[in-house]
Amino acid sequence: MLSLLSIFFTCLALILIPCLFIFRRPSVPLFLKKAIIFIKTATSQYNDEEESGTIEGKEKRGRMPKHVAIILDGNRRWANKRGLRVSEGHEAGARRLLEHVMDCFAIGINTISLFAFSTENWGRPDGEVNFLMAMFEKNFKSEMAYYDRYKVKISVIGRRTNMPESLLGLIQEVEEATKSYKEKHLIMAIDYSGRFDILQACKRLAEKTKNGLIQVEDLDERMIDKELMTSCSEYPNPDLLIRTSGEQRISNFFLWQSAYTELYFPNVLWPDFGEAEYLKALTWYQQRQRRFGLRV
Amino acid sequence: MDFNDPMLALSSWIGQIGDFGLDLVWRFIHIVVTLWHIVSGIFESVESYAISLGLIQKYSSIDIEKLKCLAVVVDIEAARDVSKVIELLQWLTTIGVKQVGLFDSQGLLKKSKDMILEMVPRSVLLQETGEKHISPDRIALEFISSSDNKEAVVKAANILLEKYLKSIHPENGVGENVFTESHLNEALRVVGESVHVPDLLLVYGPVRSHLGFPAWRLRYTEIVHMGSLKYMRYGSLLKAIHKFTGVRQNYGV
Hints:
The complex is a heterodimer.
Chain A (H helix, E strand, L loop, with lengths): L1 H21 L7 H20 L5 H8 L4 E5 L3 H7 L4 H21 L4 E8 L7 H24 L2 E6 L7 H14 L5 E9 L1 H17 L10 H7 L12 E4 L18 E3 L10 H12 L10
Parallel strand pairs in A: 1-2, 1-5, 2-4, 3-4, 5-6
Helix pairs in contact in A: 4-5, 5-6, 6-7, 8-9
Chain B lengths: L3 H49 L17 E5 L1 H4 L2 H14 L3 E5 L4 H4 L1 H7 L3 E3 H4 L9 E6 L5 H17 L14 H10 L9 E5 L17 E6 L6 H12 L8
Parallel strand pairs in B: 1-2, 1-5, 2-4, 3-4, 5-6
Helix pairs in contact in B: 1-9, 7-8
């Protein structure tokens, strides 16, 4: 009976799994999408309940990243490939984001950071920048109830000095409404720069020194860690950083925090980053042997 | 009560079989992805040998001028084999790279600095020549470790902190704004660090991270994972550099 069942599941996987990799945008039925999430959750539970096996093996098999950072690259190229406007590319990217955030939390990821808008992006055409700011506002308004219902803590990191007042007000509102939630944390990096993050941490420490809260001699790496914008998270250093569209650089995102982050650079454009790509990224991450700069 | 016991046992049994089946499916996904990587690895090896033999025309000429500064990150285990590092540097000299930063987190390559400089022809220490005065026939080497990353930023931050505290006006308690990129660059130079941003970073080792390479310098650096240093291939190196010369960055704009 057991062998029959295992044969059945293997045949099912043989047919279904290759389809995930062959079709660019698999129209995965809803029940199958939920099944994939369930598979991962069930497998993690199964591994947790296992009594034998080495800790190393158990970790490798069931290990999920606690913090995943994503550079959402490729919206404009996606739109250009289809003869669409750039704004439509950004809208497709935003829909993709909303579709998958909850799926990521469901499989055990605690923190998701999204590089939505960099400080350098202010140099883009005014029309595009204004559209993006309006889109952020619209999404915060429409999704606030959703995040509240699913107990997702929202944090926005970045400079905030150039943002429209209306967007700033919404950010404060959504952060205040969700600040008590702990299990799921969504960090949106808007007007964020890794270098600025380091500098503002140093500046905050300078203010603390001026006010007598710390001594100059006490300044060390851990103090800077605590003043970075990612200190709002229980897991400030990402385990996995994904940059879509095939570009292989981190472009001023989480410079300090990414020392031992696994870097994954798939070729797919962000609006096309679907369930199959998530599966690939997570299985790839689970096969990595993280050393944190030490000998094994 | 009697009816419930067999039912409970049955549902527990079904649950266990279901979990087992789901585990099989997940493991199968891992197998498929691993096979995919193995097959693409084989293709890459074949391509690399073809490139090394000069069979693929497009790699025979590279616009090396675009690559002003190359950084190489080496895993600790790989850094113990200095001969492979030397071989890599000799290849880079052949390709025409002028400036190379060598990084390993524990500073093992720093300790072997003298031997590396002796064994790599026409190599000089970057600190001695400076970035602007490298002769065309030389390769300038820089040796970097984790102490040049966060520790260095902490030292530089200390300098800025003291400057800020000294600049505070007693009347209004406001100090000079010394927390800018240019100020931190200057402070890093004072503590003996280079602030030159590498154009390309090659990572040799099993990990796909930059292992703590100086964070301040990584802003727009292309990061390419090259695999094991022990099994490094000249063709793969040429391909990575050639691919970099074709990259067009928009720097966020």
